[in-house]
Amino acid sequence: MRIRIVDAFTDRPFTGNPAAVVLLDSGPFPGDDRLQRLAAEVNLSETAYARPLPEDSEADWALRWFTPTTEVNLCGHATLATAHVLHSTGAASGTVRFATRSGILTATTAADGSVTLDFPTAPLTEVEVDDDVRAALGADVLSAHDTGPNVGDLLVELADEKTVRALSPDLSAVARLDHRGVIVTAPAAEEGVPYDYVSRFFGPAVGIDEDPVTGSAHTALAPLWSARLGREELTGLQASPRTGLVRTALRGDRTLLTGDAVTVIDGDLLIGP
User: What is the C-alpha separation between 161 and 231, in angstroms, rounded?
Assistant: First the structure.
């Protein structure tokens, strides 16, 4: 059985966000314990498992995502990585429909190899910021939003790009907050750069201290910054050490996420999941 590691939301290897992709045969998924053990062994922020569905199904492939410690409801970069593998291996072309915990998600691969994901827009609810959040982040907070059940994170606006880039949160305190993780964001500091806003994501509660590039977070970042900047189409830079760009297009209750991907490892699993 093959396992591939793909750098997503980048066109250069060793940048963006690496995801492991395992294409399974048709039929039921292996047991959850086996899937989780392999994800822990790979120890990337996400491992994606996809299996083909019968032709009369509402989707083409069933897709699940696991961090090293748990299964999650929504993951952007591992979905992009899976679509990239399906396209590059000839297993699929054009638009692929995935059956997931978050409903039917589609991924469309363009002629240049870029992939556009059609995801549900996160419903943002502004919330009060308590002292625990400020202490965990070690920074002043301008605003905060709950991102709803699919994403499950706290979206926090900080003072500026410099603050986002320099942030060094107390990860043990972040893990104790009442959310899956924390997205921090600010507008781009300068005009003329190839992005409109910056972000970072911290999810120690689900085994991810800092995620390099978080597609699902951009379903919340897109409506926030589209409202602030007055444009439906934007580009976000996730300012992790690996960095990555996510092009977003807000379409009401759907958000389009576009990025590139590069396969960096293609090998065999000696023990199946």
Answer: 19
Given 41, 46, 157, 161, the catalytic residue: 46
DSSP state of 216: T
Q: How far apart are CA 218 and CA 114, in angstroms?
A: 17
Specify burial of residue 18 (Cβ count, 10 A radius: 0-12, 13-18, 19+).
buried
210 is annotated as an active-site residue: no
- What pLDDT digit, counting tens, does each position of 163-198 carry? 999 999 999 999 999 999 999 999 999 999 999 999
Q: Tell which CATH classification among 3.30.1340.30, 3.30.420.10, 3.10.310.10, 1.10.10.10 matches the domain 125-250.
A: 3.10.310.10
Q: Could you tell me which residues come within 8 angstroms of residue 144 by beta carbon, excluding any fewer than 6 positions away?
A: 126, 127, 128, 129, 133, 154, 155, 156, 157
pLDDT tens string 18-40? 999 999 999 999 999 999 999 99
CATH (residue range 2-121+258-268)? 3.10.310.10
Please tell me the distance from the alpha carbon of residue 52 to that of residue 231, in angstroms, as a whole number.
37
Model-wide pTM > 0.90: yes
- Residue 263 CB: number of other CB atoms within 10 A? 16
